[in-house]
Amino acid sequence: MKFLFGQGFLILLSVIILYYLFNTTQFSPYLGNGGLNWQNIVVLIFFSANILINLTSMTYIVMSRVFLGKGIGRKLIYKSLQKGVILSFGVTLVVILNFLHILDIYYGIGVLALVLLTLLVI
Q1: Counts for the chain of helices (H) and strands (E), in that order
Q2: Is the pTM of this model over 0.85?
C-alpha cells in the first residue's frame, strides 16, 4: 500500500508542477528567435513520462490485486514498473518522432500497439 500511495503522490506532484508550468508565460517550447527550447521540452517529457510510468504501474498492480488476487510483493512491483517503463518509452518515442516529423502519430500509435500486443502475447 505504501508503494501505491507513493506513486499516487508522484503523479499528483507531477500534475501540479506541469499545471504551474503551463500557466506561466516563460514555459514555451520555442525561443524568441524561433529555435527550440530543449530545456523546456526535456522537462515536459520527464514529467509526462513520470506520470505515465506511475499510472501504468498503479493500474497493473490494482488489476493484478483485484482480478487475479495476487498479493503485492517485490516481484509484482518490479513487473509493474517494467510494464510502465516500456509503455512510457514507447509513447515518448512516438511523440518525439511525430514532433520531428519522422513518423505520423497515427501510424506510430498503431505500430506501438502492435509491438505491445506482440510483447504481451509472446
Answers
A1: 4, 0
A2: no
